[in-house]
């Protein structure tokens, strides 16, 4: 190489390498960008939103408000999509969102046996186990056993309902408000709400249990 | 929120064979997964497909993978996702499989000629070299 713009790095094995998946993603993104279907900046914004703005904390806010505000709770259980919209969210995939309430008599757990329908706008991206076949098939057959594996033991008198999401309907669990949380602000309440408690594989945290 | 939940996830991992441990992040295992996810949302926002269409395609992709012997533990989930997205883009007439292959090969070439550590950029010369 004697051209003016030759590389100073002559180590031919020093080239870069992209994995097959990276190559395919770049190829698709280039094509979609060239054809005007997507803008790279908009894609970056979506990725960033997944990581920060849309996490389980949006769902936690909704749950905390339902705990603190009986009118909102009523609205949420009647029409979750509409109630969540009043909080200023812009639901992306949650047009048909249904909230199911946990009580001492009934514990709800959400699963999707087809693929992995999930209220991303509230809970962020689905955890890996949610997308796994063992979780999907076992939850339908043996929800109590799955809950035990997650460290949740419920009284035998509590009925467990399994909700199978579809592309049209997504479910979010309204966990029971933990004992000892009277007098907490909505912000403080929201910190007690875990992602798993909104899937139904966990319970809300007890105050002070960090 | 890692403390309690990650212990729970570890317990599940022990209890269910092949159950992946959840690190309890909003879960992209690698950046390309987030990119594939973002492209899907962007195309949905443009009205290229509906969620029921997407769910059907992704479900079919996962089913095919399982029939090929994929354990479907969740770790390969975004592979199926990307395959479904490629299929969707082809079905909608945006880009067929041969176009995708041409661009994959071009990116591969671009990576080869780019010194390690430098940003990899696609140039016209990367096409047609196989």
Provide structural commentary.
The complex is a heterodimer of chains A (210) and B (130). Chain A is of the alpha/beta class and 210 residues long. Chain A has 2 domains: 35 residues, no CATH class; 144 residues, Nitrile Hydratase, Chain A (Alpha-Beta Complex), CATH 3.90.330. In chain A, 41% of the residues lie in helices and 10% in strands. Chain A has 10 helices and 4 strands. Chain A is globular and about 60 Å long. The N terminus of chain A is likely disordered. Chain B has a domain of 69 residues. The longest helix of chain B is centred in the middle third of the chain and has 17 residues. Chain B is globular. The N terminus of chain B is likely disordered. Chains A and B meet through helix 1, helix 2 and helix 7 of A and helix 1, helix 2, helix 3, helix 4 and helix 5 of B.
Topology diagram in text:
The complex is a heterodimer of chains A (210) and B (130).
Chain A: H1 20-34, H2 40-53, H3 56-68, H4 70-78, H5 80-85, E1 97-101, E2 106-111, H6 120-123, H7 133-141, H8 143-149, E3 159-164, E4 170-174, H9 186-190, H10 195-199
Helix pairs in contact in A: 3-4, 7-8
Chain B: H1 2-15, H2 31-45, H3 51-67, H4 77-91, H5 97-113
Continuous helix count of chain B: 5
Helix content percent band of chain A: 40-55%
Estimate the global geometry of chain A from the Cα principal axes: globular
Strand/helix succession of chain B = HHHHH
Q: How can the largest sheet of chain B be summarized?
A: none
Oligomer designation: heterodimer
**Biggest contact:** A-B, 68 and 78 residues
Strand line-up across the major sheet of chain A: 1-4
Q: Whole-Å distance between the termini of chain A? A: 62 Å
SSE order of chain A in H/E notation?
Answer: HHHHHEEHHHEEHH
CATH architecture of the largest domain in chain A: Alpha-Beta Complex
Radius of gyration of chain B: 18 Å
Rg calculated over all Cα atoms of chain A? 22 Å
Distance between the termini of chain B: 48 Å
Contiguous runs where pLDDT drops below 50 for at least 5 residues of chain A: 1-12
Task: Specify the helix fraction band of chain B.
Answer: 55-70%
Q: What is the CATH superfamily label of the largest domain in chain A?
A: Nitrile hydratase alpha /Thiocyanate hydrolase gamma
Number of strands of chain A: 4
